[in-house]
Write a structure and sequence with these properties.
With about 280 residues, this protein is of the alpha+beta class. Helix content is about 20%, strand content about 20%. It contains six helices and ten strands. The longest helix has 18 residues. The chain is globular, with a radius of gyration of 24 Å.
């Protein structure tokens, strides 16, 4: 009986711990941001062989030929030449640095190749994002065993992540601007090289947390929302999907809606979750 009570007590303490907030890093640790680390937590120095250069602030001016409003932006590194070309003749030498799919394509198709260009660290983020990121290092927390976040200002929430959950939140809340509107085609290509159009669509994405750079995100706040509108092929034209994600999915689960022309109504779509086959790529 005593052993049973001890086990129950240990389990209760473990559950209590996982529900508590995970603390941010110390001030001395956060002091590495902008020195040995970049302001968002990456190694600032070059790697040992120099294939990844030191970070020096990224591109802060538009490349030559840039015109506001153009859908295609000029390549700032158009003059770069490949440092290495991998094809079927030398694939075995580099197999350990390739995905299995890429290695197989190189082995199977003589004309397939991978051009390896110099690495550039070109990203430059708004100053408000950088300032908020430093504050987040000291104050941001995860809740619910890492499933939710708290006291996060618009920016990288955990520039010096301590857990896998913090690294995942860095990915989910990373700065990508405020709004994205894009048109796209998705094609499926079979092993014979025959391409079939899966979807033509328009995507509208809003990163809601970046609309007010001074407002910390709350548990029920939407940090990401998206609408997809399919215009082709004919069997998909007119379909639409919309979804919203909140900072605490346990307190405010994902909201999703779907419109199917054949039914002529908008329906809640709770099945649009993390393992749902993607209709935009035919599953």
């Amino acid at each position: 009986m005593m052993k049973h009570k001890q086990t129950m007590l240990a389990l209760s303490l473990a559950l209590a711990f996982t529900s508590q907030a995970q603390a941010a890093v110390s001030a001395s640790e956060a002091g590495k941001l902008g020195t040995s680390l970049t302001q968002v937590g990456a190694d600032a120095a070059a790697n040992a062989d120099g294939s990844i250069p030191a970070y020096t602030g990224g591109l802060t001016t538009a490349p030559a030929g840039f015109k506001a409003g153009d859908s295609m932006r000029p390549d700032p590194y158009a003059g770069d030449k490949p440092q290495l070309v991998i094809d079927g003749k030398n694939v075995a030498k580099y197999k350990g640095e390739l995905t299995a799919t890429t290695a197989e394509l190189l082995s199977r198709f003589p004309d397939f190749r991978v051009d390896v260009y110099p690495t550039h660290r070109s990203v430059a983020l708004p100053q408000a994002v950088l300032d908020n990121t430093k504050q987040n290092a000291l104050n941001a927390k995860t809740l619910e065993g890492g499933m939710a976040v708290d006291q996060v200002l618009p920016g990288i929430p955990f520039p010096i992540p301590q857990t896998g959950a913090e690294a995942m939140w860095n990915f989910l809340l990373r700065y990508q601007g405020v709004n994205i509107a894009t048109k796209y085609d998705s094609w499926n290509v079979d092993s014979a090289g025959v391409a079939a159009l899966s979807t033509t669509g328009q995507a509208f994405i809003n990163y809601a947390i970046y609309e007010d750079m001074k407002k910390p995100i709350a548990a029920k706040d939407t940090y990401y929302q998206m609408k997809l509108y399919y215009t082709g092929p004919a069997r998909r034209a007119g379909e639409a999907i919309m979804l919203r994600d909140a900072a605490n999915p346990l307190e405010q689960p994902r909201k999703a809606w779907q419109y199917l022309p054949g039914q002529r109504r908008v329906k809640l779509a709770p099945n649009l979750a993390y393992d749902t086959p993607n209709p935009g790529t035919s599953g």
